[in-house]
Amino acid sequence: MTNQSITQKLANPTRFMGLSDQLLPWLAGASAAIIGYAMYLAFFVAPPDYQQGHTVKIMFIHVPSAWLAMMAYVLIAISSFGLLVFRHPLADVSAKAAAPIGAAFTLLALITGSLWGKPMWGTYWVWDARLTSVLLLFFLYLGLMALRSSIEDEALAAKLTAVLALVGVVLLPIIKFSVDWWNTLHQPSTGLTTTVHSSIRVPLLVSALGFSLLFFTLHLKAMRNEILRRRVKALRMAEVDRAQGSQAPVAAS
Amino acid sequence: MADTLILARGGRTVVDRLSFTVDAGHALVLSGANGAGKTTLIRALAGFLLPVEGQIVLEGGSADRTPAEQCHFVGHQNGMKSSLTVEENLLFWADFLRAPGAGPGVEPPKRVADALTRFDLEPLSDIPAGYLSAGQKRRLGLARLLVAERPVWLLDEPTVSLDTRSAGLLAALVNAHTAAGGIVVAATHLDLGLDRADELRLGPREVAA
Amino acid sequence: MADTLILARGGRTVVDRLSFTVDAGHALVLSGANGAGKTTLIRALAGFLLPVEGQIVLEGGSADRTPAEQCHFVGHQNGMKSSLTVEENLLFWADFLRAPGAGPGVEPPKRVADALTRFDLEPLSDIPAGYLSAGQKRRLGLARLLVAERPVWLLDEPTVSLDTRSAGLLAALVNAHTAAGGIVVAATHLDLGLDRADELRLGPREVAA
Amino acid sequence: MMPGFWVLVRRDLQLAVREGGAIGTALGFYLIVVALMPLGLGPDLSLLSRIAAGVLWIALLLAALLSLPRIFEADYEDGALEVMATADLPLELVAAAKSLAHWISTGIPLALMAPALGILLNLDIGSTPALIGTMVAGTPAISFLGAIGAALTLKARRGGLLLALLVLPLYVPTLIFGITAINAVALGSDGFWQSFAMLVALSMGATVLGPVAAAAAVRPQLQ
Amino acid sequence: MMPGFWVLVRRDLQLAVREGGAIGTALGFYLIVVALMPLGLGPDLSLLSRIAAGVLWIALLLAALLSLPRIFEADYEDGALEVMATADLPLELVAAAKSLAHWISTGIPLALMAPALGILLNLDIGSTPALIGTMVAGTPAISFLGAIGAALTLKARRGGLLLALLVLPLYVPTLIFGITAINAVALGSDGFWQSFAMLVALSMGATVLGPVAAAAAVRPQLQ
Ligand code: HEM
Ligand SMILES: Nc1ncnc2c1ncn2[C@@H]1O[C@H](COP(=O)(O)OP(=O)(O)OP(=O)(O)O)[C@@H](O)[C@H]1O
Ligand SMILES: Nc1ncnc2c1ncn2[C@@H]1O[C@H](COP(=O)(O)OP(=O)(O)OP(=O)(O)O)[C@@H](O)[C@H]1O
Ligand SMILES: [Mg+2]
Ligand SMILES: [Mg+2]
């Protein structure tokens, strides 16, 4: 949650731009190194599973992306709250930047999961409770992005997307529960993080750390892009205003 | 009534540091070129648009209601259902807009009949609103002003599509409202012929034009 | 141009046995109270409404095209897409309305640039049309008149929402069009200030009013 | 406060009746989608009765979905919503009144029609009371949550499709408990009352969440 | 004549892309409806693969259905359709151009997405070419026949629902042959080419009938 606290300390985008500029190379380097190390551990150190063989290696990508898929939504929800309640200038930038990344991790979890499912369950997909609720999470991401993209006025789109994100927060646990109840084919949780042998647990945790850093790298980069895009747009608007001969100042982004 | 307002549309400042007051019993006519921000200002007064800065105060209004709740807003659209008849439309608004604490006063049906007469809509009262011509629709929209009592009238280009006779009717009603101590703010490109009216010219935003 | 027209809306006769001609190089201004049938008449001229009786003839037009295909119609709506920019909108209409057999003539992009200049829309040309104010939208709708050449212009309340300056611009363009031998039929409640214009007052249909 | 609320409910119902049989159209659509399913899935009767509850609920969702834009759209476009925003009734209650009218004019008729369609799908006639009961209990969630989607998509192009995309995931819990409840009766497992209670709880939650979120979504669009 | 036709097709495609990913929304809706079916019908995989073709086609129909209003509605409401009616291009060709743009921007992407959704329903991957082929061949009928419904409901409130009611019966033949063709491949019966030929014939008929009927329906509504 490093990025979160930085976001809160920074009241203005300019300081954010300065700080993130310095931070970004380090973050990127660290995430590359850690993910590389995790993959090394996964493929050369961790033993193949006696039951699953080498397919178990998918886990080192699958599980971190599944965690990040959920964490990204939490981040979006917090940002949305920040936008609607505190009107924080960076909140919307953060929410907007996180949505596609969260959706990508969700998709990654879905794809790696189904690739794993083929050898394990003999099919790419089952309508299991956990799978179904991840799919619905993916739909929520799609909804957030579709809603934002279909409204021209950006400030308005930001507010409406935030409302939807918060409604989604109420809904997600309900979906999780209802799907749990409804379904009987539930895959029992393996309790991997605590009980399994450290030869698997350690690479998994390293991989999770690396993926989290990757997420923050991408998120920060996307936020910077978004801020720059808004500045360019404001400059264009100002040009139009000038062409119309107005002396009115342009609202800073 | 308004204090150093700054209003923005889509990230662009449209109305920049504007202050004005309208006294009870007076009308304010907003004028200015296309795109000057008349509509923007009226919508801000009606509470649809939050000012970036500054505030809007209605002095002497009831304290437990927002300024917007004491305004009649008539914008470009009339808010009438084309499948309801002229009379049904007005009756709905009369019932819906009646202040909750309002005493017996004049009953809605009576008010509606009165509004219909005043706007020459009586012969059309049983016709679905969708069949009206542009000017008839506009008159119906304006008739809403009379079905519930509110101190402030906000009118955005009220005379659009009206023939001269109807425009005259409207001017008379506005004059009557201000004479009774009401406030009217109207955006228009035409001369309405009002008594007790001040004019506020919004700045030339489009210099090229 | 028209011969003993009878037009009906929803089973009611609105325009009853009307005949008139407009000569090339002249404008006809339709006036009359709200509900008199101006819009009905203009839409009949544009071919949307078939006359119950009578007919509409355009003399001297090309024989293989209906009168409607030689008219520019500008009604209450402007036919512009709010997600396309001002320029993209006009370019589409310029391409789309170009007569198939048209020789090289003036190219659409050139025409569009010209229309934008004439209606003071140049500074707005890259803005999505949805962001325009009421009057700016109207000017954009009218700019369509200039992007393709057609002898007859049918205008329904063209000055709605226009400020005085823009209304003047429009009058000048209409005058130029008639001076070049074109025909203009315009419904309006205001004085447009046209040269070479006749007026046709439609009867008072609204008996009570 | 309350008088305005009921005035609005009454008007919306009046409009639903007046405007070309909105109700009849929803029922017709429900019928067609249910009838389409056997065409698509094949005419095997035992298969059909196994999936009947699911088909009835999904088709009901879709029929309700298509009528959701009615909640706000017309009033937004003709300016009536603006006027309502300047009224004394808070926008939350305006949204609640309109959702309620939608439920009465769409949810209830669809729920009452479901048993007749169940016959087409070879559903056990004995489950009629359960069918109607669960649907009446579950459909308020559809109207009130749907209002959120209807409000969010007011200014969006292609409202219908986007609305469906936003709203369908919100309907999943209602769908699941609705089906479980009916199947409990029709296929003779137990747990009906448990699912039924969940349906009621979901609907009650929706009547609070829906209007609040819908009003929050409408407000910035009145600019 | 023809230049105006292609100008219009290009503009409609441009609008489809510009206006907030109409295409993406249709795809998202398709995905959700397909995902909803197992929720409703139960997670039994062998059951699902038996009905997969039907579910894919019905969901595709519904996704296309919801995007049909786009064909005429916006142009009607902002007056563009009136102007088009005074152009040299006959209204029939205007309708054809708009239907074609709808097919390119909705029918084709939906058809291409179907195989991915087939996985969710446990459909045999080997049937992917047949799936895409039949859907590309069948979807023109959906766009061009749908245009008739879109035109008929221009002036009706709540067009969406009424439109669906009018148009779904027209889609039944396409639906039936589409499903038969896919099942012929997926479940290994024969008769694929026969059904496929019927689909092509239906689509070709629709490209003629659709625009003519749609233009006839639009004209009186321009009064
Ligand atoms: C598309 C299919 C799949 C999806 C959407 C999916 C989703 C998820 C999610 C959301 C988690 C995180 C759960 C949590 O931490 O509470 C997770 C963890 C996990 N998944 Fe999957 N999964 C899929 C397929 C599979 C398959 C086929 C396997 C292997 C048999 C598998 C094995 C695991 C394991 C071992 C964990 C870690 C569990 C734990 O932390 O206790 N998943 N998956
Ligand atoms: N939703 C919007 N997003 C961005 N800019 C907008 C929006 N609405 C209006 N504007 C811009 O704000 C400015 C003021 O518009 P407004 O509608 O207030 O003008 P107006 O004075 O009412 O003009 P008119 O006389 O033409 O009605 C215009 O330049 C317009 O382009
Ligand atoms: N679709 C319709 N169905 C039935 N009657 C209609 C319809 N449209 C218009 N009318 C009636 O036809 C008459 C003429 O309407 P029209 O719109 O032509 O008037 P107008 O002269 O343009 O008036 P305005 O100045 O108000 O625009 C009116 O009395 C109107 O009520
Ligand atoms: Mg204005
Ligand atoms: Mg008129």
Explain what you see.
The complex is a heteropentamer, with one copy of chain A (253 residues), two copies of chain B (209 residues) and two copies of chain D (223 residues). Residues 1-10 and 245-253 of chain A have low confidence and may be disordered. Chain A is globular and about 70 Å long. Chain A is mostly helical and 253 residues long. Chain A is built from eight helices and no strands. Chain B is an alpha/beta fold. In chain B, helix 2 packs across helix 3 and helix 3 (108-118) packs across helix 4 (134-147). Chain B starts with a strand and ends in an 8-residue tail after the last strand. By secondary structure, chain D is an all-alpha fold. Chain D has one domain (2-222). Chain D is 81% helix and 0% strand. The model of chain D has no long low-confidence stretch (mean pLDDT 87). Chains D and E meet through helix 2, helix 3 and helix 8 of D and helix 2, helix 3 and helix 8 of E. Bound molecules: protoporphyrin IX containing FE, adenosine-5'-triphosphate (2 copies) and magnesium ion (MG) (2 copies). One magnesium ion (MG) binds next to loops of chain B. Residues 133-134 of chain B line the site of one magnesium ion.
Number of strands of chain D: 0
Helix content of chain D: over 70%
For the biggest sheet of chain D, the summary is: none
SSE string of chain D, helices as H and strands as E: HHHHHHHHH
The rough form of chain D would be described as elongated
Bound ligands: protoporphyrin IX containing FE, adenosine-5'-triphosphate, magnesium ion
Total strands of chain B: the figure is 8
Query: Could you give the order of strands across the largest sheet of chain B?
Result: 5-6-7-3-8
- Overall pLDDT of chain B: 81
Class by helix and strand content of chain B?
alpha/beta
Structural class by secondary-structure content of chain D:
mainly alpha
Entry keywords:
heteropentamer, A: about 250 residues, mainly alpha, about 0% strand, globular, disordered C terminus, B: alpha/beta, three-stranded antiparallel sheet, binds protoporphyrin IX containing FE, binds adenosine-5'-triphosphate, binds magnesium ion
